[in-house]
Every structure is written in structure tokens, then in C-alpha cells.
Specification:
five-stranded parallel sheet, two-stranded antiparallel sheet, about 120 residues, alpha/beta, single chain, Rossmann fold, 7 strands, 5 helices
Length: about 120
């Protein structure tokens, strides 16, 4: 018997409209709020609880894995990136990310989010 997926609240931080759309498509069934800048995400995090944060590490107002440190105190952080090699993945995990999804393999996001939601 398949495990029931309970919808979770996700904060998606990505400056690309098309990437944000794809993430929303692959996380269908969950409540998703999108922020395009880190500063907007941080404002939301001060007033709203999220179960998971999905973020790119290249934003207009923040670049690099330090973003994980800024966000992980609010909720677990899953990184999505177009630059997704083994070295970057290991570094993201060391910074406290729960995982890394390659934007070029965004279809992997569905199973990752659903596994987290069960």
C-alpha cells in the first residue's frame, strides 16, 4: 500500500520565473509560496511557518552556499541548482542542506519532496 502524502508548506526561492513554474509543477499538491529575492524570503520566514525551503544558490541579492546558513534556522533547506556537480553537492550538504537537486533533472524533485512529506 502506498504511503499517503500529506501536503506541506514550501517556500521556493528562485529568481527565474520559468524555473519556479517547473518546481511548482513537480511539487504539485503542496502549498508553495514563491520569493524571487532572499530579502523577500526572509521577510516571509519571520511571519510564516514553512515545512521546507527550496532555494537556488544564485539569486540577485545572494550568491553561494552561505544562503543555506541563513535559511536552515527556519526550516530544512533543499538546494536546486543548474550547477550541480559532486563537489557542489558535497559542499551544500556540509553547509546544512538536506539535499541538492539538479535543475536539469528537475523531475527528481517530485520524489524528494514527497519523501519529505510522508
Amino acid at each position: 500500500m502506498a504511503q499517503k502524502i500529506k501536503p506541506i508548506k514550501i517556500l521556493l526561492i528562485d529568481d527565474s520565473e520559468s524555473d519556479a513554474y517547473l518546481v511548482c509543477e513537480h511539487a504539485e499538491g503542496h502549498e508553495i509560496k514563491v520569493a524571487h529575492y532572499l530579502k523577500n524570503a526572509q521577510k516571509l520566514l519571520k511571519t510564516t511557518h514553512f515545512d521546507l525551503i527550496i532555494t537556488d544558490v544564485s539569486l540577485p541579492d545572494s550568491f553561494g552556499l552561505d544562503i543555506i546558513q541563513k535559511l536552515k534556522k527556519y526550516a530544512p533547506v533543499l538546494v536546486i541548482s543548474g550547477i550541480c556537480n559532486k563537489k557542489m553537492q558535497e559542499a551544500a550538504l556540509r553547509h546544512g542542506a538536506i539535499g541538492v537537486i539538479d535543475k536539469n533533472k528537475i523531475e527528481n524533485l517530485t520524489s524528494t519532496v514527497n519523501a519529505y512529506a510522508t
